[in-house]
Design a protein that fits this description.
By secondary structure, this protein is mostly helical. Mean pLDDT is about 85; it is low at about 155-170. The chain is built from eight helices and no strands. The chain has a domain at about 55-155.
């Protein structure tokens, strides 16, 4: 009992001494503060690099999964098939959203690709689909925009390929 109490007392004194020393150095030593700032900046850079690599690997995984699935199961072109396909993909996406977010996102992407007004369905997705799945759907749209979304994007302004430079631009 006495030995355990002595060991605990020594450990508590050592921890308190280290805390007091650390606090003193933090308050009074410019070099110590500089080294702490350098370590914080270095750690922040490492964390940003890690986040960037993670995002890129996630984007690559989404891209390969989407393109492989579209190659394996193409989107129908017939109007009656598209309606049934939309309902099927939404139902499948809702079921898969709990287990496999990439597979669910692919289903929701395919449903968006056949929907006549994709901006409306994106608003519905944002409210009803889990956030991680919605983020993957947006990534898929950025990687490989469906024809319905591409037509909306092109209506937003003139196509750069169609605009001819004037003589003033060339001077």
């Amino acid at each position: 009992m006495n030995k355990a109490l002595a060991i605990t007392g020594v450990a508590a004194t050592a921890i308190a001494g280290y805390a007091i020393y650390f606090d003193y150095q933090r308050r009074n030593s410019k070099q110590f503060r500089k080294s702490l700032k350098k370590k914080a900046v270095k750690q922040k850079k490492i964390q940003e690099q890690h986040e960037k690599e993670t995002k890129q690997s996630k984007l690559d995984a989404v891209k390969t999964a989407l393109l492989a699935d579209l190659k394996e199961n193409p989107i129908p072109t017939d109007l009656t098939e598209r309606e049934a396909f939309f309902m099927e993909q939404v139902a499948t996406g809702e079921q898969k959203a709990k287990d496999d977010s990439i597979a669910a996102a692919i289903c929701f992407y395919k449903a968006l690709a056949v929907y006549p007004n994709p901006t409306d369905i994106l608003g519905v997705y944002q409210k009803t689909v889990p956030e991680d799945v919605y983020e993957l759907v947006v990534m898929m749209i950025a990687v490989y925009p469906p024809a319905s979304v591409s037509s909306i994007l092109s209506k937003g302004g003139p196509n750069p390929a169609d605009v001819k430079p004037t003589e003033e631009d060339l001077d």
